[in-house]
């Protein structure tokens, strides 16, 4: 018997794929997705209007984590170069006052800088900041037009972050700067944008979540913002 014939016989005798093979395949996929979500990427949905009109409620983002991670060692840094956080960047981070919550805001002030606000104008080290991304679309309770904030020096390893919709953003003006250790990464892609409102992301009830999923499926085509889907942020 030739080697070729022996190989054909062994291949023919192999049983067809069963449920065990499918379970193993699903497990491998889930493990791969867990690795991606834990170390490389993270998905995030915009739940409020604090970043309008640059990011809208219902924008689903992919956040790149690895080049902003604090757990990268000197050897890994050669493979995954670290990026410096710069003014004007949009970042995701854990809330300094509610660690179970995550926010998307824009970096306005850098470590060691002096920042103040007079009549909605931000001053960095006494120089007015040009902010073409800022909008004043709506006012939330407790906020007011013509905002003023006394001068504040940003601590080391910390960043002053604010929403682009200045009259409707819960940010560093309320709970202070964001320490470097709380920063998750930088959003780089809107992979899907779905027309929705703030209430769609406020419910924690299981029934409401299942209902919301059903409504989303039914309205997927009509409410998807196709012009914003697969849009790179930088």
Number of strands: 12
Shape: globular
CATH topology of one domain: Umud Fragment, subunit A
Number of helices: 6
Give the distance, in angstroms, between the N- and C-terminal Cα atoms.
Answer: 62 Å
Name the CATH architecture of one domain. Ribbon
SSE order in H/E notation? Answer: HHEEHEEEEEEEHEEHHE
| Percent range for β-strand residues | 25-35%
Share of helical residues: 10-25%
Q: Residue-averaged pLDDT, rounded? A: 80
CATH class category name of one domain:
Mainly Beta
From the helix content, strand content and strand pairing, which structural class follows? alpha+beta
Low-confidence stretches: 3-16
Main beta-sheet strand count, sense and barrel state: 8 strands, antiparallel
CA radius of gyration is 24 Å
CATH 4th-level superfamily of one domain: Umud Fragment, subunit A
